[in-house]
Amino acid sequence: MAFGRKFGMKVRIARFQNCYGPEGTWKGGREKAPAALCRKVAEVENGGTIEVWGDGSAVRSYTYIDDMLDGIYRLMQSDLEGPANIGCPEYATVKDLAETIAEVAGKKIEIRYIDGPVGVHSRNFSNARIASTGWRSRVPLKDGIALTYPWVAEQVMAERRGHAAASPARA
Fold first, then answer.
1. What's the CA gap between 97 and 20, in Å, rounded?
2. Residue 164 pLDDT > 90, yes or no?
3. pTM summary value
4. Which domains does the chain have, with CATH numbers?
């Protein structure tokens, strides 16, 4: 922003809210909760147990990658300057997220809540600035998980076979 003021350049800053989707980071500790929980559900047998940090009550919003890309595009084509939040207005608890993933996977799972970092209980995030461009989130959490889980499950299966799965281009 200081550079923009000094040199008369328009600066736009996209602030993301928990982006997820196929072909993203799905293991290694840097992945977002949707990918981490997709991986855990893919790894466990039907009827098995996964471990989740906290008590499952933390509330988050998860934004599907296609919505995020559309938001970035609209921001860059707009007259807005400065930061604009881009995120899905649908909020879910971590418990809801895990249950949604299990439903999409067609598995019954148990969730064991354990001590671990959970961050703040909830965040407030306004999309008013990006909404002024006509943008809105179009992919509900369950639909985004239905697009993400099969890809993560494929990666898990490929890893079990001893090699990384090819990353086919999405249709």
1. 12
2. no
3. 0.87
4. 12-160 (3.90.25.10)
